[in-house]
Amino acid sequence: MGKERFDRKKFDRLAQEIRYITTDMICRYGQGHLGGSVDLAEIVITLYYRIMNIRPADPQWGERDRLVLSKGHCGPILYTILAYKGFFPKSWLATLNMDGTRLPSHVDQNQTPGVDITAGSLGQGLSCACGIALAGKMNRKNYRTFCIIGDGESNEGQIWEAALFASHNRLDNLLVICDYNKLQIDGFTEDVLGLEPLTEKWHSFGWEVFEMDGHNWDDIYRKIHKAMTVKGKPSMIIAHTIKCKGNRLLENKPECHYIRVPDKDTYRKIMDGLVYKDVQLPY
Amino acid sequence: MNYHEMEMRAVYAGTLNGLMDENPHVICLEADLGKSSGTVPEVREKHPDNFIECGVCEANMIGIAAGLAKEGKIPFCASFTSFASRRAYDQVSISVGFANNNVKIVGTAPGITNGPNGGTHICFQDLAIMRAMPNMHVYSPCDVYELRSILRFMVKEKQPTYMQLIRVKVGKILDTNYRFNPEKAVILREGSDVTLVSTGYMTQFAYKVANELSSGGISVDLLHYPSVKPFDAETLIQSAKKTGAVVAVENQNIIGGLGGAVCEVLSENYPTRVKRLGIPDRFGEVASEQYFFDKYGFGPEHIARACRDMMKNKVKGNSA
Q1: Which end of chain B, C or N, has fewer beta carbons within 10 A?
Q2: Is the predicted pLDDT of residue B131 greater than 50, yes or no?
Q3: Domain total for chain A?
Q4: Has residue A2 been placed in a domain?
Q5: What is the domain-level CATH number for residue A67?
């Protein structure tokens, strides 16, 4: 499937749909990681629709670009995109976390077509992404390895081990995006375990560092493209995002990290919080 | 120098070099202990493109290996058993075991062979915790021939594997014709009075004891388990049926390792008295091999005594 030409109206609409469906999937199950999933909509859409070389009918195509969702708990939004791109039927989306599902809460390379690496135990995905990027160089392949990490995830020491490794080995085929929504489970990142100055940290680890507005189509595309031209070192793009973006009830609230939906009233309230509602569910 | 006179780590490095000559996808990863596991300078110099130095980052090394494996490489990651198993256990569990990535983890200097480094570096539970991990295959070779054969097998089979690597010289037990089969225990001596079960480092002592006891009139059925998982239950059950008395000895905590596997199999299939020898649920300390043997009672003389005692106190007609 080819990359798509940017059409702001169409992409805005797509982001609305992706957010709506992802929220519905989580609510339908009754609980899940909502905030960090839906805040990725514009970034993941840009990657899968405008940047990455993929063949949904051949998920293991050797030349494809890889994506490691190191913040593996945000599987739901990735599943929605993968279904939209045709990696599997959209009807699967209704099975999120259900018994016997192929769409588990945390991404699993052995369950879901299009998922490149199992992740969920935080910090591990970035190391795996380094291994994939290194293999690309060893095998003289031209694919690029994208990896999305979380800001809370950046508390993990393993992130910084991988940061050292990637720059030491000049992995310029590795492009990492940090979803910097400034919230983690126990509160705001600066209250739980401060990351600032985050840009300087990555820079001092030998990475080329960019910052972008993680909800601005033009900025996302431009920064990713620019990062893809970097030679001799890995790139980090710190994406400033709003956790649970697009849901007026939960936006930027600590409780949006993991929601519980015990009854229909709660379900309705959360769905009513969405800015856009006229979406036809595909399942 | 004869092959069996080489240090085990030299055989590890030499075999890896040979495997890399045959298959360019074989990769050696180290976390700043390459000199200890024998790959520095041997592998690093002979195959610089297949050698990855990760620095003192065991967790990251496991993740790197998982990513490499996902792309078709065959990575061997080495570190002391304590770091390869205990320290990186969650990384091994998720990025290797759960994800079922074809990563080979090599735990060096197992148990008391890391005596000079003491309690922080000695690991007595790696066999137990690796055995308890789904998808993981757990091997512990007893000599150079078995080590070489296991390494060849590991390259061939696409599956997560943990292998203990003794660094030092070990006496010759097997020979150049030996072929590793993870489904089969190696019957090093056939006997009818008592079953002696061992793995890895302790097999050389068990072998010596079995020979001595046999010349003294006690017939020992000596079963060496190069693979603790999968575990060849059938050979053990048949031996227990024959002897009615079992002694298990290992360079590990007696909880959960080889002795644990022996007890699990026999209690479910052919209840038989078992004496487990090894470390009785203690951490390590700076000490010599003899000190550990004497303190915890699992050296050659203790193994011999346990075999004699078990034989004497045998309950005839085990239930089954």
Answers
A1: N
A2: yes
A3: 1
A4: no
A5: 3.40.50.970
List per-block mean pLDDT (blocks of 10 residues) for chain A, which spans 283 residues: 88 97 97 98 98 98 98 98 98 97 98 98 98 98 98 98 98 98 97 98 98 98 98 98 98 97 97 92 94
Domains of chain B: 3-165 (3.40.50.970), 186-312 (3.40.50.920)
pLDDT at A2: 67
| Complex ipTM value | 0.97
A127 to B62: CB separation less than 8 angstroms, yes or no: yes
Angle between helical axes of A124-138 and B58-70 (0-180°, round to 10):
50
Report the pLDDT value the prediction gives residue A278, as an integer from 0 to 100.
86
Q: How far is A26 from chain B (nearest CA, A)?
A: 24
Nearest C-alpha of chain A: how many angstroms from B115? Answer: 29
Q: How far is B126 from chain A (nearest CA, A)?
A: 21
Indicate yes or no: CB of A116 within 8 angstroms of CB of B49. Answer: no
Q: Is residue A65 part of a domain?
A: yes
Given an 8 Å threshold on Cβ–Cβ distance, is A131 in contact with B70?
yes
What was the pLDDT predicted at B314?
Answer: 80
The domain in which residue A57 lies consists of: 8-273
At B282, list the tokens: 């203690």
Could B63 and A118 be called an inter-chain contact, meaning their C-beta atoms sit closer than 8 Å? no
In a domain, A104, yes or no: yes
